[in-house]
Structures are given as structure tokens and as C-alpha cells.
From TrEMBL:
Residues 1-60 form the Ig-like domain. SUPFAM superfamilies: Immunoglobulin. The gene is RT1-B. It holds the Pfam family C1-set. It comes from the Eukaryota. InterPro entries: Ig-like_dom, Ig-like_dom_sf, Ig-like_fold, Ig/MHC_CS, Ig_C1-set, MHC/Immunoglobulin. PANTHER family: HLA CLASS II HISTOCOMPATIBILITY ANTIGEN, DRB1 BETA CHAIN, MHC CLASS II-RELATED. PROSITE patterns: IG_LIKE (PS50835), IG_MHC (PS00290). This is Rano class II histocompatibility antigen, A beta chain.
Length: 80
């Protein structure tokens, strides 16, 4: 059994959670879709947590604004 939960600010979120159908991928794996409908407020932190007997600990993914990309540059050595 797979357990999927949404947390808001580290508290279990039960309202606005919608479970989709289980979909077979055809290779003995499955997809499950669990959506959270909410109106986020500034400072809210949302986390999706997935548990299964085959995992040592639940998989946890925190959702939020994407981080800005960090500019990069490359330097090549100048040989005499």
C-alpha cells in the first residue's frame, strides 16, 4: 500500500486533497496522482510525503517558489 499525504506548514492537510485513479504504466509500475487545492498564503510551506513498505523512510518533497538560477561563468587558463 502506498500512502500519499500533503502537509501545510508541517501539519497534515485533509481539506482540498483530491485522489486520482491508479494508472498502470505497463511495466509493473504505477502512477498515483494526489492533488491539493488551496489558496497559498505568504510564508506557507507545502510538502508532499509518500510512504511505502519498501522505503526505509517516507519520501518528502517540499514545494515552493523555484530558486533563481545562479549565473555561471567559465575560466580557461592562459598558457604562456
Amino acid at each position: 500500500e502506498i500512502e500519499i499525504q500533503w502537509l501545510k506548514n508541517e501539519q497534515l492537510e485533509k481539506e482540498g486533497v483530491a485522489f486520482g485513479e491508479e494508472v498502470q504504466n505497463g511495466d509493473w509500475t504505477y502512477q498515483l496522482q494526489v492533488m491539493l487545492e488551496t489558496q497559498p498564503q505568504r510564508g506557507d510551506v507545502y510538502t508532499c510525503q509518500v510512504g511505502h513498505a519498501s522505503l526505509e523512510a517516507p519520501i518528502t518533497v517540499q514545494w515552493g517558489k523555484p530558486l533563481p538560477s545562479i549565473p555561471s561563468c567559465s575560466v580557461e587558463p592562459i598558457l604562456p
